[in-house]
Design brief:
homodimer, mainly alpha, Arc Repressor Mutant, subunit A, Tetracycline Repressor, domain 2, 11 helices
Chain lengths: 222, 222
């Protein structure tokens, strides 16, 4: 092992071999853009938070806007990995929808930066997201959901008029809104809606609503 | 009628008797806070947009933050009038839920400022909304929904385990998200989701999902 005094550079590299300067700037960007939004975050703030010279930011990302685009891509990549996992499971629609709702709630709960950055981005009229192939991110899951809904409809379990695009948007809406609007929602209910028990109640309500919502119903005898 | 030349002040008052200076500043505040957010909007911008001296803003609202609080209250008042109308209708749950969904979609479509200001406010951790009694805004509608759900459950039409708070949050989520995230959603679907035909399709999907979601189902015979 290299000693700190004799070889400080090598020691530093050995101690955190996986965190490159580029990743350090990216991580600072994610944190600051999420908190303050892309417009109110300055290059100096990112430089200070990453502990790296501002010229390093220009070297790796060209500009603040360039870094922001990479941050947005990194956020979509995280979400994408959830979608891809779900798309590959080849599950019956009931199971797939349960896992989508649980997966989205877990992901958004663990990734508050994703929620905030997507909110900022929409307030900016999606200016930078245009550079990202958003459709490609969701396409595999939409396809998987379409196939499993068709199978369920053929088996006579599900309504055959449920559009997979609409249904996935509904799953996204029912999960995203709970996090993006958490402050006004907590005030509305007079309690912190992100307490674990309330989060669980919410996931149960949404899962049941979606599953019952697509089942074929027989009217109860009068 | 007063002529313009002989009595310009009186004529001006007669021509727009309902727009006070206070309302003019409030309207400029709504427009600018919605577009740029409360932090990036300056007193000079509001003064220029309203055509009124910045001292007028301080006179009526004390500070930019004071104006922003009034803007947020004005937004909640608009939404409140939708909720109060719905709460007073005493409708069976099917009809009430249909009208909630249609009413929310119409309101949000016609009031993009509401969507944006609520998004900004949540990104600011609900700092200013704390001054508003958000719970009181939704309470009458939650109560009305609770009563009509109970009646439907007693009649054997609805599941008896549907919580009115959860269901209203779902209606809010399914409508709000469609507007707040319109840019990334449009990219996801590869089309402008706010085209009238797509908006109508969306309202139909959500209405059906919610209504089917609370109905009691009889399993289809195997």
């Amino acid at each position: 092992m290299a000693t700190k005094t004799s070889a400080p550079r090598a020691a530093k590299t050995q101690r955190s071999p996986r965190i490159s300067n580029r990743d350090r700037i990216l991580a600072a960007g994610i944190k600051l853009f999420a908190e303050h939004g892309p417009d109110a975050t300055s290059v100096s703030m990112i430089s200070e938070a990453s502990g790296l010279n501002r010229r390093m930011l220009y070297h790796y990302f060209g500009s603040k806007e360039g870094l922001y685009e990479e941050v947005l891509k990194a956020m979509y990549d995280r979400m994408n990995s959830v979608d891809v996992d779900l798309a590959h499971m080849l599950l019956p629609a009931e199971e797939l929808l349960k896992k989508i709702i649980q997966g989205y709630y877990r992901f958004l709960n663990e990734n508050p930066e994703f929620v905030r950055i997507l909110s900022w981005e929409n307030l900016r009229h999606g200016r930078t997201a245009k550079a990202i192939d958003v459709a490609a991110v969701k396409a595999p899951l939409i396809k998987a959901l379409g196939v499993s809904l068709q199978m369920g409809a053929r088996d006579g379990r599900f309504r055959s008029d449920v559009d997979e695009n609409q249904l996935l948007i509904s799953c996204m809406a029912l999960s995203f809104f709970f996090f993006s609007n958490q402050y006004t929602l907590s005030m509305l209910l007079g309690k912190d809606i992100h307490a674990p028990r309330l989060l669980e109640q919410r996931v149960n309500h949404v899962t049941q609503l979606i599953l019952e919502g697509i089942l074929i119903k027989q009217p109860t005898p009068a």
